[in-house]
Design goal:
12 helices; 36% strand; 20% helix; globular; alpha+beta; ten-stranded antiparallel β-sheet
Length: 753
């Protein structure tokens, strides 16, 4: 009897000891288990372990300490309800074992009604702390985050300078440093883990992950203060934060059925923390002088452009939804005499336009040490310097310290001058100079991000609601000081420029949830054929604001003006731009190139854009399920550049011509539709001027093709299976195509060489 009682007692104690070792919180699909001895946590979603043995780390430079080395570790939980959701807050705390201990509190915010949790770290001490690295997420334990298959890691750059690109790499390869946010996702199922810092007041956050085989995450670090010259372009270490309390950024860990929705959720949380700068106008359409004219800009040229838009583009519908166009001067606006600015602004207003200007608030281009600032200080006094007192430079120009009174006096004088002249749009460039790490004038400012916030807050106060603010060569975050941001670096007319821009659109479309709009840079046509121009226009329409850049002066290229009238005058594309924001990728691709297909859905209408950056045409089937359409429903599929329409109720064959773009508007067929629409399987033909071919669109091949002069003489014939006829040898003129497909259908079209 006593032996049984003893056995029962031992069993009871063992059970109690086992429970005490792990505290688990279940909230919705989330499970977070914390080991009471080490403070390490296992984070799981719907039974799948995402991060194993997670623990906070912190320190100064390379002198890092881990949470598991602490003493007096305690785990507490309480009900949670905040702006991010409802659930349970789990706080894990411990002390350093010295005579003047630091208390470290690692908190998990576990939401029962969300696909994400949040976590952060707080350090407190009776003596001053000096910290320049904190990692709320750090683990070297393996977890199986995704199903086996086409799994990719997304690397996000810190800024958009020097033609940097977003990059995806397969599991098992070396993954590039990612700034602020990253994702692991399956490109087939679209399931994905999305992680990132959602507060941007103090820290630059580096994300480093390693993976193995097809689906294993082997290490992850989300570390405030983890920077590099290659990543953040800093020569100095991350600034050291000092005080009795030091807090990390708040970090999101989310698991989503569609990683694209996960990136948007991340952006929404960033915007919830810092609401985007309000803008009550419509999406900007307009022109900027840095496309073609650049340093040669004069008042006469700018006025010519204003008049051209009023006479030739606004009249055909190329303007904002509230009938405005922005005519913007870029660098070298100081070619104007002082009196010219007021006159130019007035001309724009007479033409139903708003005038734009350009400036670089944190850059001393002349490196002019003895120059005098408006408060009487010298340029050298306001320069940002390193720990040895040397001025910090980027792109050959010295950085002004955003916290220095001289820098702020310069900002006040110039911005008030722009506003007084009447400018209502400003492009602020080389913003990364303001976020560099260095020694700042304000000794309560420890980091580059903190200094950037000081400078941008003052800038926002100076401008108020008087100007649309557009950032170029800027960090991703903070985002709440501007209405739009250049999504990539400079882009001009070439096919490669459009592809470069769309690499950023494909993987950072979600930024227009933090800013009001993205900016694909100037649409330039000069020196390229019309199909390449069409790609450039499309890249802008599906990214955000639409700003042209050719020389539309009286002496400018007549061909460019004619093409602008035709392409910018496509009202269906303009109307699409009114209704949409940035398109997102239909699917990602491995590497740092831009995907081919992008999509956006507005109510019952889905837009699909295809852009071909190669010399071979792309032919593929559009899977209705993949784009969220209902198989069996009859849809109108209208191509907006050509006006071609078909009916489709299942897959639809998309053909993107060489070096060209297509944009499909797909919507349920109206019951009262009176439009004559070709059935899906009808054969159609068109002329590709870029490649010099007559091509056919069909579910089957052509077996006979004939080219006739208008007088009826057959000059080219082709037999056998084919879907294109080369007509490059024909002289300029009008011709007729006749063909027969493999199902016996005949097709004709007239074309002009």
């Amino acid at each position: 009897m006593s032996r049984n009682l003893l056995l029962l007692l031992v069993t009871s104690l063992a059970s109690t000891w086992s429970v005490a070792q792990e505290i688990e919180v279940n909230a919705g699909k989330w499970q977070v288990s914390v080991n009471e001895t080490s403070g390490k946590a296992e984070i799981a979603y719907d039974g799948k372990t995402l991060i194993n043995n997670n623990e906070a780390q912190w320190g100064l430079n390379d002198n890092m300490q881990a949470f598991s080395t602490l003493t007096n570790i305690k785990v507490e939980q309480q009900a949670l309800s905040d702006e991010f959701g409802t659930g349970t807050m789990l706080a894990v705390s411990g002390n350093t074992g010295n005579s003047n201990p630091t208390t470290v509190t690692h908190t998990y915010y576990i939401y029962s009604d969300r696909d994400y949790i949040l976590t952060d770290v707080k350090l407190t001490s009776n003596s001053e702390l000096a910290i320049n690295k904190i990692a709320p997420v750090s683990s070297s334990s393996t977890s199986q985050v995704l199903e086996a298959g086409s799994n990719l890691h997304l690397s996000v750059p810190f800024d958009n300078d020097e033609w940097v690109r977003y990059e995806t790499t397969k599991f098992g390869n070396t993954h590039r440093y990612s700034s602020e946010v990253s994702a692991l996702f399956n490109n087939d199922s679209r399931q994905g883990l999305v992680v990132g810092s959602i507060t941007h007041d103090m820290w630059k956050t580096g994300i480093n992950m390693t993976t193995q085989s097809e689906n294993r995450l082997t290490s992850i670090s989300i570390c405030n203060g983890d920077i590099s010259k290659a990543g953040t372009r800093d020569d100095e270490p991350h600034g050291t934060v000092r005080g009795n309390e030091v807090n990390s950024s708040k970090v999101m860990i989310g698991y989503f059925t569609d990683w694209r929705r996960g990136m948007e959720t991340y952006a929404d949380l960033c915007e919830l923390v810092h609401p985007r700068l309000p803008f009550w106008g419509a999406k900007p359409f307009g022109w900027n002088s840095w496309g073609v004219i650049q340093e040669k800009i004069t008042r006469k040229q700018a006025t010519d452009v204003s008049d051209f838009f009023a006479d030739s583009l606004q009249s055909v519908g190329f303007h904002t939804e509230d009938s405005v166009v922005y005519i913007g001067l870029d660098s070298y606006w100081d070619n104007f005499a002082i009196r010219d600015h007021g006159a130019f602004v007035r001309r724009c207003r007479e033409n139903g336009q708003k005038a734009g200007i350009y400036w670089t608030p944190f850059v001393d281009w002349g490196n002019w040490a003895d120059g005098t600032l408006p408060d009487g200080s010298k340029h050298a006094d306001a320069w940002l310097r390193d720990s040895k007192g040397n001025p910090l430079k980027r792109t050959g120009a010295t950085a002004f310290d955003p916290t220095h009174p001289g820098t702020q006096a310069r900002m006040k004088k110039q911005l008030e001058q722009f506003i007084d002249w009447g400018y209502e749009y400003i492009k602020l460039d080389f913003m990364i100079h303001g976020i560099l790490e260095g020694v700042h004038y304000d000794k309560n400012v420890y980091t580059g991000v903190q200094a950037y916030n000081v400078g941008m807050e003052y800038l926002k106060e100076l401008i108020g609601d008087k100007m649309f603010i557009n950032l170029s060569i800027a960090p991703l975050f903070p985002a709440h000081y501007a209405h739009s941001r250049r999504i990539a670096c400079d882009a001009y007319a070439s096919l490669g420029n459009s592809e470069y821009t769309l690499n950023s659109t494909a993987y950072s479309w979600w930024l227009d949830r933090c800013y009001t709009y993205n900016d694909a840079d100037n649409v330039v046509m000069k020196g390229e054929n019309e199909s390449t121009n069409r790609v450039r226009f499309t890249s802008s329409y599906i990214t955000g604001i639409v700003i042209l850049g050719d020389e539309f002066t009286d002496a400018g290229d007549a061909g460019a003006k004619e093409r602008a009238h035709r392409l910018a005058g496509n009202n269906e594309m303009v109307q699409m731009a009114y209704q949409t924001k940035a398109f997102y990728p239909l699917d990602a691709i491995e590497g740092d190139n831009a995907p081919t297909f992008y999509m956006y859905t507005v109510e019952d209408t889905t837009y699909v854009a295809g852009l071909n950056f190669t010399s071979k045409r792309i032919k593929t089937n559009l899977d209705f399920d993949r784009v969220g359409l209902t198989t069996g429903t009859e849809y109108v599929v209208r191509e907006l550049w050509t006006g071609d329409e078909v009916l489709a109720s299942a897959t639809y064959e998309i053909i993107v011509p060489r070096a060209d773009a297509v944009v499909y508007k797909i919507y349920p067929k109206p019951d009262d539709s009176s439009t004559k629409i070709l059935p899906y399987n009808a054969t159609r033909c068109y002329y590709d001027a870029y490649m010099g071919e007559v091509r056919t669109k069909s579910t089957t091949h052509m077996i006979e093709s004939y080219i006739y002069t208008i007088g009826g003489s057959c000059i080219i014939s082709k037999q056998g299976a084919h879907d294109a006829v080369d007509v490059n040898t024909l002289p300029a003129g009008a011709y007729l195509y006749r063909g027969l497909d493999a199902e016996g259908n005949s097709v004709t079209c007239k074309f002009q060489r």
